[in-house]
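Make up an example, fold above all:
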Amino acid sequence: MKKELTDYAEIIKKFSSDNFITETAQGADIDPEKKLSFPKTFSFYMNFLRVVTFLRNTILKEKWTQELFIQCCYQVMKIVERFGGRFEIKGLDNLRKEPGPFVFVGNHMSTLETVIFPAVIGSIIDVTYVVKQSLTKDFIFGPIMRTRNPIAVERKDPKKDLDLVLTKGVELLSGGHSVLIFPQATRTTIFEPDKFNSLGIKLAKRAGVPVLPIALKTDFWENGKLISTIGNVYPGRTVHIEFGAPVKIDGAGKKEHEQIVAFIKSCFDNWK
């Protein structure tokens, strides 16, 4: 498995410009509603599981490095492309406009962004997540997620979760680690502004750091009905990710929250 991974220096180079766009036109002319056949879908997930298993086992053996982690996450992007997927990632230079750290806030659509962001964002600036505590205890993904030193919330007591995010979030940001928050409660293929909370704004204000908005459309990898991680795969659906400019919080942050929501909505409108 390790021999198949892209060289770390090459990955850094791939994300060194403002945009990362899949070079071939694969998937461009495929009906976006046409999903992969069952055999191809099974093969897609077997390839994904192979990478995950390799990374998990390496972590358990305490032989992993940050570079290897990024290589494995980038390998998932290569698998997506191998099965007809196409990436259009824009605005990467916004991650370099200021030294950081940032509070990243974005809509949440599928498993894909969670898996590839350590490569896309992590190759530029150190980042961790706010996640459900259950994910850190998962047999497969738990060991992997725990290496990120995430902010793990229970989602039982909103006040307790808020206090944890603000306390540990400020601690991480003060140590130079960016924090990624998906303000929507669950993954969804539509963007509903009224369900996009201002937690990221609150954290950024308390820590005195900018918010960096992310708009994404990752329904290439659909959520599953029985197992959320395993759903249909649609090679005709381009994976869109766009990073906005850093936003400094002034005052209560209401204006900045509206600005971020407008950015994400504008991206969605452009992707229709």
Remarks:
- DSSP finds nine helices and eight strands in the chain.
- The first helix runs from residue 8 to 14.
- The domain at 33-271 is CATH 3.40.1130 (Glycerol-3-phosphate (1)-acyltransferase).
- The chain has a mean pLDDT of 94.
